[in-house]
């Protein structure tokens, strides 16, 4: 969450894109892997190696944070730098060494963090290698080295989120692992935004280039929602395909655990074949050898080597007379056409404070939504504090305050939080200079009234234009991110829409069937029972009993369809999971299922599993259907019935796992569809999984299928825990 960074004010319950961007700006960059940093320091200690650039690029690629920082630094000096080898050549060995030594190292004693980051590093390397090879094999405009860096940095947003909100991102990773889900889905649920949005902000703040920004932001977007222009779509298309290839091949760990397949739509759009994909998969492992060899190093020795190199660099820098000039050049070079609003405000405040005689200067910009104001408060020593604060409703942007309005009055007008007036606004007695763009109030300057800088009035129109353009750009970014999120939501809702249409069709069919069939069924059943009671011949009695039984069977099918289409409203109660499982196994063992007497069902319930909040009858029926399916698939092998709470303790996961043959992608997608069955001979009605999913959903939960051909299937039901907030909400809804 936002407060985890220690630098961002907690506004709301979720980390918004704006708060994340602010926390990222106020941080000292992404943390680096100590082993990779030490390897880079060793390689850059001499200028004599002929193959140093190639070797250095391979080592640098083992850490996404270092690669991104090097490319960012090189592009600030040479904006056309587009790939990692060009960045290394541009900076030189000394420059690369200096950049790496300026980065902080992550805690190598945190084993979970090390596993996540190095697993992600191997995944990113695999995606980069696949993207480069796929680019060379397809007729795209993107050059292979640029495809490589797009693939390498496509998940940099995960590292950024892990740095800004470490506990929340760890929880999102745990949730994705527990529920076999896409990490981006869990990031949005736990943190408030996912790594694609975070990656875009990181790419734009660090000037990594439009191709990398698009690859990071759009590689999970539906193909049909991508821009038709090849130049805009190719980075995302190649990265998405390479990501799928790497995950299918099991290279590294992306943090996502949902089922992945090679996207046919992208193959068609890039005009690639399955044989070309297979060739790429075989070559990926070669690209990972350098990273694996680096990760085998001694972390304590690596950290010591980096510390020694930092001390040497500090001694060299202290002896340079132009260090202050270098810092000034760095500050003034931060504003360009791609600068974001907070960067612009900070640069303006820094420049005005340095040129005036006031103790501090506050510059602010009003965002286009008129919901937030972006501020920077800087002193003459160059130290700058930055913040995003809420604005009160009803501000009129075309009616700025006059120049003689006191600063305190303007601050009360701008800031919704009273504490901001004393914490961030200038002291009493300061003057205020509004800044306009096209007649609209876009920002302003709080100053001492003596001389912020000698030409403030002369440059005020230009400052207003710059702030206005920055606010417009920020607004466009926000709208674009909203559109991308809407596209993802639309894609996700397609399955739900198809399910709802199926349910509607089944309901109509069941109602029609019940109306049309119940009368003739009643006649058939009644006549058969009447004949059965009067028939004295045993053979004739068997015939009439069969007719009566089959009529009842048809009636039961119609009843089941009606129950599926319009189930009884659930009556939830706290259910102890261990007892629930024991009852489900007992009922299954006494059923007429072919494996009822022979199936071995193991029950495992985690000690801290709370009671589940659900309708007893409906949940028991759902578990019975899942046990029947698992026993059918496993046949003579075992079935495992297990449960555990989710990371937040608000949900309970109930799962049935078998060791059967698993399902292919087509069967897995259709498994919960009414009437679907992959077994043709002796098949049941095909309503088992459908009914289980229906019961899970009306009890406030969900059902997910995880299958691996040749290894088995796990079906998870996730339901509210008794005593959780979700249970309280369901009580309110029921009332």
| Secondary structure tally, helices | 28
Order of strands, widest sheet: 3-2-1-5-4
Alpha carbon gap, first and last residue: 33 Å
Low-confidence stretches: 1-13, 321-332, 728-735
Quote the average pLDDT.
78
From the alpha carbons, calculate the radius of gyration and give it in angstroms. Answer: 32 Å
Biggest sheet layout: 5 strands, antiparallel
Oligomeric composition of the shown chains: single chain
Helix content: 55-70%
Number of strands: 12
Question: CATH fold name of the largest domain, please?
Answer: Hypothetical protein af1432
> What structural class do the secondary elements suggest?
alpha+beta
Shape: globular
CATH superfamily of the largest domain: Hypothetical protein af1432
Q: Please report the first level of CATH classification, the CATH class of the largest domain.
A: Mainly Alpha
Number of domains: 5
Q: Any key phrases for this structure?
A:
735 residues; 5-stranded mixed β-sheet; 57% helix; globular; 28 helices; 5-stranded antiparallel β-sheet; disordered N terminus; 5 domains; 12 strands; disordered C terminus; 11% strand; Hypothetical protein af1432; Beta-Lactamase; alpha+beta; single chain
Describe this structure in words.
The chain has helices spanning 17-26, 34-43, 52-60, 64-77, 84-101, 111-137, 144-152, 156-164, 166-178, 183-190, 195-205, 210-218, 230-248, 264-270, 274-287, 289-295, 299-318, 323-332, 341-355, 407-414, 418-423, 456-534, 538-565, 577-589, 616-634, 665-670, 688-698, 725-734, and strands spanning 360-366, 372-379, 384-390, 431-437, 440-447, 573-575, 601-605, 612-614, 639-645, 651-658, 702-708, 712-720. It has 735 residues and is of the alpha+beta class. It folds into five domains: 2-28 and 110-297, Hypothetical protein af1432; 31-105 and 298-319, no CATH class; 334-475, Beta-Lactamase, CATH 3.30.450; 479-565, Helix Hairpins, CATH 1.10.287; 573-734, Heat Shock Protein 90 (2-Layer Sandwich). It is globular, with a radius of gyration of 32 Å.
